[in-house]
Amino acid sequence: MEITASKQRVAASRGVVRAVRTGALAIAAFALPLAASAQDVVDPVKELAAPPSVQLPLKPSAEFAQFPRYVGTLGKRQIVMRLAPKTDDPSGVHGEYQYTDTGAVILIAGDREGTTLEAEESNDGTHITGNWVGTFSTDGTLSGERMEVDDSNPVDFELKPLAAGQPIPAATGAAQPDQPAAGLSAPAAGGARAVTGVSNLTVGE
Q1: How far apart are CA 140 and CA 32, in angstroms?
Q2: Per-residue pLDDT reduced to its tens digit, 101-135
Q3: Range of the domain at 156
Q4: Looking at residue 140, which CATH number applies to its domain?
Q5: DSSP state of 184
Q6: Any idea what DSSP says for residue 187?
Q7: pTM, whole model, 2 decimals?
């Protein structure tokens, strides 16, 4: 009788354990979709409080500070471009250019095949605002046309390589900030500012 009672107690105990395990699994299975749903829910307060990924107007990027420089004109305005190959793409190039009259910065990225450059620009780090097609000559000069996104309104550019440490030459006959070259809207006014990193340009949009 004692052995039978003991077996009954063990069986009852096992039943309790099974019930507890089953209940725990059910709770876990129910909790997982709830947790996933909670992760998918965006807190509107946090979203509004989060700083934007790109600070506007764009500022010169530390990432491009040591890139080779080119100086010349885009239409009638002087610009300085910093352009170099991408580390993860042998044919890709990226960088930025800056108007010397206002200090406005525009990002640029694209491809170089031989002496031909095809690139796109962005004035906010996200949206494409223009296309560039140019050719590198034997002396390193880059010349060609900058166009609108739909390839309309071409504007000539000619940029010459600038040696490291060489000062930027004074602009001659450049258009004033309130008189942009044909086909180019004047960028937002703003002088040179502290260097910060900006590199999230998406090419091909």
Answers
A1: 60
A2: 999 999 999 999 999 999 999 999 999 999 999 99
A3: 54-205
A4: 2.40.128
A5: -
A6: P
A7: 0.60
